Amino acid sequence: MAEMMELLQDLGRWFSVRGGILLKNGFEVFLIFLLVYAFLRLLQGTRGVGVLKGLSIFLGILLLITVIVTHWFPLETVNWVLTSMAPVILIPMFILFQPEIRRAMVRVGQNPLFSMFFRPHAHFTDALVRATFEMARDKIGGLIAIERQVGLSSYVEAGVRLDSEVSVELIKSIFWPGNPLHDGAIVIRQQRIAAAGCLFPLTDNPHFSAEMGTRHRAGIGVTEESDAVAIIISEQSGKVSLAVKGAIQQDLDERALMHALEDIAAETLAGE
Percentage of the chain with pLDDT > 90? Predict the structure, then answer.
């Protein structure tokens, strides 16, 4: 009987210790979750979201490869490179190639598992395409960026806030040559004009012709920095272009632009 009581006391002490450890670990996990959640909420609506997603995917894959190599395969050289040399190599690479790596991380973060594109309403899309080609016929230059998941808040805050419905008349009046905002860009968020007079970074991709104007380079640049879609109207030729993921389609007609926007939306919705 005494031995049984002693055994029960030992079990009680063991469960007490284990329960304390589990409670402590659970609290630490919950605290880390709150910190990560607060950080993500802070980044919501900024370009940092796309970079963070891409970096998380990259680090997750790297961690998985490291675990597999170190625990299941006796590849000593590869194991040494991953555990010893990788930090020494990665830090200088992130410093030297920071712009390229940032763009690559944004692209990784645009995986269909994470992406969410605007859901185009018929009236919204029709008004946007109609305004674009009425400006093109009058040779009024313009740049319209449609925000997707990677936020354009930094550009919106630097521009003139509007929060207006998308209409042909409003878009044309913003880009009218006499308007102080005509040299900037419009940002559309959730099918509303969030701001006008926004300035985007110019692409430094050497593959694009040096004759390409500032408006086109800005349209490409914002799609390199985010997952936005940019519509560009040339003031000189009246031609319409569409920039997506750092690439540009030029000389589109109304049907081609409409189909391109619909295809992008369908592709994103299929990945959700």
Answer: 32
